[in-house]
Every structure is written in structure tokens, then in C-alpha cells.
Amino acid sequence: MKSHDNNLITLRDVGMTYDGREVLRHVSAAVRHGDFVAITGPNGGGKTTLLRIVLGLLRPTSGSVDYCGGCTPAIGYLPQKNSVDSHFPITVSEVVATGLLGRSTGSKCSDAARVEEYLELVDMAAYASRPIGRLSGGQLQRTLLARALVSRPSLIVMDEPLSYLDKHFEARLYDILEGLRNRATILLVSHEMNTIDQMATHHWIVDKTLHQCTSTRHWVDGCDHKHD
User: Fold this and answer.
1) What per-residue confidence (pLDDT) applies to 4?
2) Residue 186 in 3-state DSSP?
3) What mean pLDDT comes out for the span 73-102?
4) Is the separation of the CB atoms in 148 and 78 below 8 Å?
5) Which of 126, 138, 128 is nearest to 90 (CA)?
6) pTM for this prediction
7) 188 beta partners
8) Among 105, 109, 85, which Cα is nearest to 95's?
9) N or C: which end of the chain has fewer CB within 10 A?
10) Are the C-beta atoms of residues 56 and 72 closer than 8 Å to each other?
11) What's the angle, vertex CA 217, arms to CA 79 and CA 228, rounded to 5?
12) DSSP letter string over 70-122?
């Protein structure tokens, strides 16, 4: 794959093997500044592994991941809820504040105001002092969303953001995504593609290998299924 000046991330022949089991093979793709990449595929197909490789949390068995200018961009990450220890003794506002670690706005007052702003954004301001162990699944998901967004990163990576959300906040999330795509690059894994599919500029289907399209309305590589 040839490099491109506007590529934020370039994946070159990435492969990943765990304990002798191949999870990804020969994955090559590029993410350009301002892209909204919707990622879908079957359970166990390698979607989360791919995200973790992009984030630098996993080193691929083969191939490489290159970033524009050789530097990892500022990233906001919303992991799957089941990867978070909800019994850890920390409050909602403290969780969101961790999203500013290393990216402080410059003062404690400004940081606190930023945290409050994003708690309001996800309708969690009323729960700011509540321990996360006393939250519902949807409330914890909204808290983690605020943490991912609070630093206003240039790259936002979301793994199943609709999990545990009720229909009311699901609609709110779509509004948030609509606003984000005007100022950030987005990689989003989801099984619920009906609305997201219309927002995305690219759609990747991951099942060990990667099939991709430049537009979610035009399919290539013989993909005859629009949703997994």
C-alpha cells in the first residue's frame, strides 16, 4: 500500500496470532484525517483485536501500523464495558477526569469545568459523585463515553458504544457522533449499523481478513451483506 500525506493511520499486512490461533491475517488499510470508519463483523472475527493494535495496546505478530508524522495522535478510547472493573472505588467525575491525564487544560479549575461539561453532554452530571459500582450498565457506558471525549482528541475509537444504552440515549449518541465527525477521525465497532452506516465514510467488515469500501453505499471485494 502506498503512503498518502493525508493518511492518519496506515495498516500494512497486519497479522495477529494468539496461542497458535490466527485472529487477523494480511490486514492492510488506511484511515485518513476526518474519516468515520464503521467496523462490523462476526463475534470472534478480530474487530476488538484490530482496534487494540491501532491503539498500540497490542503489537501485531506481523506487519506494521504507521501514524502520520511518526507520532501517535491524541486518542479517546471507549472500550467494551466488560473490560472495566466496576467495583474499583472511584466516582463518576473521577473516571471522566482520568481522560485528561497528560492532556490537562492548564488549570484545575479549567479541568473541573471540562469534566462538568462532558458529564452534562452524556446526562451524567447528577451522578458526578456516585461510585461507579452503583451505576447501571447504561450509566457506566455514558461515563466511559465522557472519559473518551473529555480531552477533545483528534482520533476517537469506540468499541460497541451502543451497548447497554436505552433508546433515548442511543438517539443522543447519534447526535454526539454527528457533531464529532466534523472535528475528529472516528473508528467505531458496532453490530447496530442502521444509523451509523449512514454517517460513516467507510465500512470495514472484519473476519480475520478485512473487506473495505470507500463509501458505505458501495460494496467491493464481493461483499453481498450490508450488516453483520
Assistant:
1) 52
2) strand
3) 90
4) yes
5) 128
6) 0.88
7) 38, 158
8) 85
9) N
10) yes
11) 45
12) GSPPPEEEE--GGGS-TTSS-BHHHHHHGGGTT---SSHHHHHHHHHHHHHHT
